[in-house]
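Treating backbone geometry as a discrete language has practical consequences that deserve illustration. The amino acid sequence and the backbone structure tokens for this protein are reproduced below.
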Amino acid sequence: MRPVMYGYMRVVGGDAMHGEIARLGRELAAYAEREGFALDEVFTEKMDRSEPAFSCLIDAIKRNDVRDIIVPSLWHFARLPGLQDAMRQHIEHETGARVWVVQGQRR
């Protein structure tokens, strides 16, 4: 049995949002499988959502003792590099989970 990994992504609204979510989900699942994990839940941050997916992710990590998180790129945490690092460090220090990044930072 493969260890479980959670995913996290942030998407901006628009007509292509559902297609983008599906595409990124497939990308995360393929990467997780190549690395020996099973992708479980993907927490998706949407601008029209009342409860932040990032907070839900942190709660789920703590509740379920998941130790690995995957993101498409650090851009999904934030656009500013300093904030990207802060969010990554928050996950790692608050939960002990390792953050995996599929691709480099978007510019």
About this structure: The chain has a mean pLDDT of 89. The chain is about 40% helix and 25% strand. Residues 69 and 77 are 12 Å apart (CA to CA). Residues 4-37+51-101 form one domain.
